[in-house]
Amino acid sequence: MRPIDCRHIYLDGRHYDLQINHLDDLAFYLNQIEKYGEPVLEVACGTGRLTIPIAERGIQITGLDISESMLYQAKIKAGAKGVKIEWIEADCRNFNLKKKFNFIFFPANSIAHLHDLESIEACFSCVKKHLLPNGRFVIDMFNPSLSMLIRDPYKRYPVTEYPDPDDKGNVVITYNNVYDSANQINRIKWYYKIDNKEEYSEELNMRIFYPQELDALLYYNRFTIEAKFGNYNMDTFVPSSKKQLIVCYVNR
Fold this sequence. Notes:
Strand order of the largest sheet: 3-2-1-4-5-11-10
CATH superfamily of the largest domain: Vaccinia Virus protein VP39
Helix content: 25-40%
CATH architecture of the largest domain: 3-Layer(aba) Sandwich
Radius of gyration: 18 Å
Distance between the termini: 27 Å
Number of strands: 11
CATH class of the largest domain: Alpha Beta
CATH topology of the largest domain: Rossmann fold
Order of helices and strands: HHEHEHEEHEHEEEEHEE
Largest sheet: 7 strands, mixed
């Protein structure tokens, strides 16, 4: 298996929370949990962006992530909210929690950090071992846009900006990318400029999953797709959909 090479991007959970703080997917997951039940496992939970508001509804949820720094931030936030959540530091390709779940979800394009077939199948194997007989597994992955993949690699595009948590000034993030079609990996470089002075860069390599490919990977790993949505409003997936939201279960 190839190593998960995104950890440097997630070295400081405080920065992550300032970069990504939307909750436009929360209602979708609450709807699915109401339908399929507890307990819940979030794979690649990060700083608890979804885990914590789900737990605030009284739902029994466990958060799993490979990044110690992200989980550290998650624990601080959960403590401030007064919610109890079991946090697990583990690789999504190799974990054994010795319990099973009615609902497991892999949100926010996190599956794109798995670059090779062995990694994908190892993750799916762990999910299968942890799903209860009538449990459901949900994957959230963007629907690839060819126009974005073949953008000018020398041009920078905006990501976000936010106040530095250490009061160093304003952080502005831009990026460019080169698509590696042989390996189906979008090789992205993020550029961080702090207070319009200091600049550094980090690489973020994202595996691209085309719709029929992702369906086939699930099928050959003994999952049956129950529903496939194109957005968080649960509209049917169509070619122009921005998202691939797949609800599936294990063939027993």
